[in-house]
Specification:
Blueprint (H helix, E strand, L loop, with lengths): L2 H13 L4 E7 L7 E6 L2 E10 L29 H11 L5 E6 L10 E6 L4 E6 L1
Antiparallel strand pairs: 1-2, 2-3, 3-6, 4-5, 5-6
Length: about 130
C-alpha cells in the first residue's frame, strides 16, 4: 500500500481505537506522510515510508492481494509505542497485511517503528520521530 493511502487508512483505524484521544495528519515539513497520535496521555509522531513490490512502478497502482491476516501480539497503550501501534494494526485483521515486525523487539534496536509487509510484496515502514 502506498504511503499516502496507508496514512489515510491508519488515520481511520486510529480514530476508531478506544485508547486514542486524538489523531492529526502532519502536512508539509521534513517528514512526508506523517501523523500524530495522542494515546495514554502522550503524543507520538509517525512517518510512513513505502517500498514498492519488486518490479512495480510509481506511475501504476499495485494490485491488492489478500490472504491470511498477520499474526499479532496485544500491547497496552502505555507500553512501547511501536508494539502498541503494531497491535492496533494487527487487531484490524486486514487481509492485505501478511506480517508485522516491531523494531523495538529487534536485537540491538536503535529506534522505534513498525514494518508492515503486504501480501502484494509492498512494505510500509512506520518510523517514530
Amino acid at each position: 500500500m502506498r504511503p499516502l493511502d496507508y496514512r489515510d487508512y491508519l488515520v481511520d483505524l486510529l480514530k476508531n481505537t478506544p485508547d486514542v484521544q486524538r489523531v492529526d495528519v502532519i502536512e508539509g515539513g521534513p517528514h512526508p506522510y506523517a501523523l500524530t497520535v495522542t494515546t495514554a496521555g502522550s503524543e507520538q509522531r509517525w512517518q510512513i515510508i513505502g517500498q514498492l513490490a519488486e518490479g512495480a512502478k510509481h506511475d501504476t497502482p499495485t494490485a491488492a492481494v489478500n490472504g491470511q491476516p498477520a499474526a499479532w501480539k496485544a500491547s497496552p497503550a502505555n507500553g512501547p509505542a511501536d508494539a502498541w501501534l503494531a497491535s492496533v494494526i494487527g487487531a484490524a485483521d486486514s487481509p492485505d497485511t501478511r506480517l508485522i515486525e516491531v523494531w523495538s523487539t529487534r536485537e540491538g534496536k536503535s529506534s522505534e517503528g513498525v514494518t508492515v509487509f503486504f501480501h502484494n510484496g509492498e512494505r510500509a515502514f512506520l518510523r517514530k520521530f
